[in-house]
Model the fold of this input.
Amino acid sequence: MNDLQRIMEVILQTKEVAIFSHYHPDGDTLGSQIALALGLEQKGINTKMINKDPFPSTFKFLADWQRIKPLEQFFELPDTLIFLDCATLERSGYADSSLYRGKLTINIDHHISNDNFANLNWVDSTAAATSELIYDLLGLLQVKIDSEIATALYTGISTDTGSFLYENTTPTTHRVAADLINRGADVNALRKNYYESVSTGKLQLLKFALNNLCFTCNNQVVWIIIDEKTFQEAEATDADAEGLINYLKNIAGIEVAMVFRIYPDQRTKVSFRSKNWFDVNKIASLFGGGGHPRAAGCLLNSNLGESVSKVIKVVEESFLTKT
Amino acid sequence: MNDLQRIMEVILQTKEVAIFSHYHPDGDTLGSQIALALGLEQKGINTKMINKDPFPSTFKFLADWQRIKPLEQFFELPDTLIFLDCATLERSGYADSSLYRGKLTINIDHHISNDNFANLNWVDSTAAATSELIYDLLGLLQVKIDSEIATALYTGISTDTGSFLYENTTPTTHRVAADLINRGADVNALRKNYYESVSTGKLQLLKFALNNLCFTCNNQVVWIIIDEKTFQEAEATDADAEGLINYLKNIAGIEVAMVFRIYPDQRTKVSFRSKNWFDVNKIASLFGGGGHPRAAGCLLNSNLGESVSKVIKVVEESFLTKT
Done:
């Protein structure tokens, strides 16, 4: 859907908007949120910035981050609500649609899975990041992209592309990045606070992982099991666990990587990645999960030993019939 | 020095050139070498590609890499020799100037430390990579940048900027990258073969490092000691050891990272990195080494215990007087 024209008209006629980013916030949802808020304020529009979760310390170099608060801390919502980088309304953390009765909702996103949940929707999955779309929108609104806005947008684009490395990176991504650096984007702050700031929790999980790698299928399949005790001892957060599977996938010769995370109630979250050809979405689907051919996940209710061996067996069988 | 105009004239008048890249080759020296060779061949100029060391397996997705060979495997050298990404003649691995008697030497590089060793020199330290300069040169020579040349140049630029993350990344870097993707640069091949291909040796060294981190100065200084036994057990190469120090520097809260590598003869190579303010060049200089404020190194002749404790003591003293 592309209601961009109508979205611009609405924005230019309003006095105040609330901008939502998604829970478990990342650089793109926060960068696009802050950039849009600062940009609209240049046009004399008041903005409220809403996020359900605490602001991540790695992004505290961004301007005005202290203004982002949970919905409960605002007295009332304005009539125009903009959701950024949320593929569904639920992703905002405020899924109760009665909250939005009588309001105009706007959905700006780059996820192909976006369900066009709002009154007006601008979803463009060719964009590497929602921040790329906000860059376009601010240009169309004739907002001056100053260094604070540039830093926020650059953060969104850089983090959502794994620093211009993932497949979503296009010539446009690089051209926008060039312009943002020209306009004063603080790439050093991003590098030091985000890329060069590995938390102790992440470090401890990585150490555990490297000491406990399991291999099968001629060392082309690798996995680790993280139980709650390990997780607690590492003093790790969910965010710390997030990038871990990439270290496994990036080992030379590996085609499939898996992380089994055992929760205290014995449910087991399985994350899958593959490098070149193995369809992990198919495996995850067999266990009630899903995703993409190269990245998928599922949640198992059975207890540890059972879950792991079941999944490994299915992966092995599928792997060996393909090779 | 900027003899670019003269370099173009010479190249356009010659029938054959030899192109040298530096020993311990990286993505930039090899990418610029292959791109220049393929480009000049479009102009009807024969090229020989010379490198002292074996070709690294992570870059074997580049076109024509098999043509790169040590000097000894060529019967004779043509009259025009081009050195790429070599700050000194020694860096080519062939420092004996008698080799070049009666030849015209050309030096194209982006290192600020370049000593303009050749007859004609084009040294531009504002370029993020030598590949950025070769991109300009091929444009001026009206070479068609096809997908093979684009992949080689993109590899040079991406690897020398840590995937567009280091301080040397400029708007020009991103604009060139955009154009190279447009022209068919195979970013996926680079990602899979280089960034997502961590060797077993590197993995074992990282595991050893995480299990043996030493901290001082309130956890702001970190180091590890790698002796020859560890190195052998990891089945590691020098290339495997290279990026290791960045993992240490990237730990949250770390200002100074050091890797002590003990060679079989007990000489100790010390690598230093700092994140924000600590001048590691000053420390390295005290021990006969050098570098930059954020990255430096030195080689110690004394035996293990002595070397490490001496360096740590000096770092601690310097650190504590500054904080």
About this structure: Residues 304-322 of chain B form the longest helix (19 residues). Residues 203-322 of chain B form a domain with the Diaminopimelate Epimerase; Chain A, domain 1 fold (CATH 3.10.310.30). The radius of gyration of chain B is 21 Å. The CA atoms of residues 24 and 53 of chain B lie 6 Å apart.
